[in-house]
Amino acid sequence: MRQVSSEVFEPTIVAYCCYYCGLTAADLAGAMRLEYPANVRVVEVPCSGKIDPRVILGAFEGGADGVYVVGCLEGDCYFIEGNTRAAKRVTRLKALLDQIGVGGERLAMYNVYCSMGPKFAAIAREMTERIRALGPSPLRRGAAAAAGGGGGDGSAGTGEGSAQS
Amino acid sequence: MIVADQKPLEEIYAYLEGTRRVLIVGCRECVTVCQAGGEKEVGLLAAALRLKRQAGGEEPLETVEDCVQRQCDAEYVEPLKEAAAGVDLVISMACGVGVQYLAQYLTDTWVVPALNTRFGGGSVEQGVWEERCGFCGDCQLDRTGGICPVARCSKSLFNGPCGGSYDGKCEVDESIDCGWQLIFDRLKALDRLALLAEIQPAKDWRTSRDGGPRRVVREDLRI
Question: How close B13 comes to chain A (CA, Å)?
Answer without folding.
Answer: 10
